[in-house]
Design goal:
229 residues; mainly beta; globular
């Protein structure tokens, strides 16, 4: 699982509960764009990496996030053991989750990092962006169903063509994508998941670009699969 770490790791896991919203506020005029970058600490500095790079145990990672619209960001993780954990906002990773157009954000927003641990596989990091603050957000999402702990069995696989070209183990199935239609999301999240079907995903070097050709009029949610051994 991804653990919050202040180098060394800090503990305290807070889980998210289902939430709902009633507002349908348009964020801005025109299409919308989100940029998501994965960074890894190499022992000396933080460096951006391919979002599909297969990580190793104890790797320390963080995300960079940027949008061309205002809103609020919520990040949740489903570990390879199947457990859910709220990554942001929370005390260790930062409480201010408001995002402003054109500004770069770091997740975690504090000096804390995420440390890779747990069984090999694909962590599923859920990114929910809303035009309004979700004031009634409690403590645990129902993705896929309340109280479940279903181990994830998808194992990282190296793309031979990419590995030969760069010397890296890259799993082309990792990175950002839509939540699969067969995932049983909660009814509170279904509206955001349906709205997300208009999103497009493109990789520009080490940056994942998530865009919508039309203004986002409500919350959207997508996943970032983080592969590790």
């Amino acid at each position: 699982m991804i653990r919050s770490a202040l180098l060394p790791v800090s503990a305290a896991a807070a889980l998210l509960l289902p939430f709902s919203w009633s507002q349908t506020k348009t964020m801005t005029q025109g299409g919308h764009r989100m940029e998501l970058m994965l960074e890894r600490y190499d022992g000396h500095a933080w460096k951006s990496i391919d979002p599909a790079l297969v990580l190793a145990q104890n790797d320390r990672v963080r995300f960079r996030f940027r949008t061309d619209f205002d809103g609020y960001l919520y990040v949740t993780n489903q570990s390879t053991s199947g457990k859910y954990e709220q990554l942001f906002p929370r005390a260790e990773t930062g409480q201010d989750n408001r995002i402003t157009a054109g500004k770069d954000y770091q997740v975690p927003a504090t000096s804390v990092a995420f440390k890779i641990a747990g069984p090999p596989g694909h962590e599923i990091v859920y990114w929910l962006v809303s035009p309004v603050r979700l004031n009634d957000i409690p403590a645990r999402p129902t993705l896929p169903t309340p109280g479940t702990t279903t181990p994830l069995t998808l194992m990282p696989r190296c793309d031979d063509a990419v590995m030969k070209a760069r010397g890296d183990c890259v799993d082309s199935s990792a990175g950002p994508k839509l939540i699969p239609r067969d995932v049983d999301v909660s009814k509170e999240l279904s509206a955001a998941n349906d709205a997300s079907r208009q999103l497009f995903f493109v990789r520009e070097q080490n940056t994942a670009v998530i865009s919508s050709p039309a203004p986002l009029t409500g919350p959207v949610i997508y996943e970032f699969q983080l592969a590790h051994r």
